[in-house]
């Protein structure tokens, strides 16, 4: 029997028994559990095979619940929450003592957001606690944007995936932390940095490396398909000199004619970056299931969500 279901009462009952379930959000599906249950949190880390120092995002139902989770909240964090919640923005703030080290990976900060998905907001409304939820993929794999992706990853071990359809945004939330009250970008995501800067002025981009990533999830190989992937400004040129026979491509707007291409993913024929972002992971999932020799992806325009798409494509090329 399929683990995919749209029953909120069933989801509530499982979560109240310290179980974890897949939940939809507007960005990607999450593996959710009660933030106050040691059993649920340990289970999330085990199921994802995620290192314990890599902290989870806390999902709350409204900004009114923020003070239960975080303290000493900078003015600019409140401005961003007012502008973008519910929505694809995660804020890293000082944690309240009730938030356990298990959730924060031992840090004194906590990542928190209000997801913009009717089903998950309705679910949170019926729970007495927020939900910790990392993306519902095994560590290092492509994030899921459909209930079926989650079921494929976790069929054997997960009791339920709450089916909320295809994720509207399709790429993880943008993560913002604060240094002396000023915003710092930890992870590019579904909310363009230009939109954030329109509210709070310039945002500092932190540099990170694999040994001590500032947002510990920012290992350079992340969001990666199993198939070898290349990123290029000119797919046609790359194809000419390529030794591979069975190739999949990802392009922004225009398809390419070449007999070596067995699967082609055009992310937005109208050239809309938001549409392209929403299609990216589903395209990577499909290509990864085609037994290809390699995937060639076209570099996107380096503006708005194009920056986020290029970031994920760059990570997809790492082995
Ligand atoms: O869109 C999203 O954010 C999705 C949906 C399910 O909400 N969640 C998600 O979670 O992408 P995850 O666990 O895959 O990524 C969370 C990121 C990680 O890179 C983690 O290191 C970072 O958030 N993070 C969490 N707490 C942090 C903290 N206290 N300081 C810095 N980074 C933190
Ligand atoms: Mg993730």
UniProtKB/TrEMBL annotation:
- Compartment(s) where it occurs, according to its Swiss-Prot or TrEMBL record: Cytoplasm
Domain of life per record: Bacteria
Q: What class of enzyme is it?
A: transferase
User: Which keywords accompany this UniProt record?
Assistant: ATP-binding, Cytoplasm, Nucleotide-binding, Nucleotidyltransferase, Transferase, tRNA processing
- Which EC number applies? 2.7.7.87
Molecular function terms in GO for this entry? Answer: L-threonylcarbamoyladenylate synthase
Residue ranges of domain YrdC-like in the record? 5-191
PROSITE patterns from the xrefs? YRDC
Does the record's keyword annotation contain Cytoplasm?
A: yes
Catalytic activity reads: L-threonine + hydrogencarbonate + ATP = L-threonylcarbamoyladenylate + diphosphate + H2O
Q: What does this protein do?
A: Required for the formation of a threonylcarbamoyl group on adenosine at position 37 (t(6)A37) in tRNAs that read codons beginning with adenine.
| Assigned protein family | Belongs to the SUA5 family.
Name of protein: Threonylcarbamoyl-AMP synthase
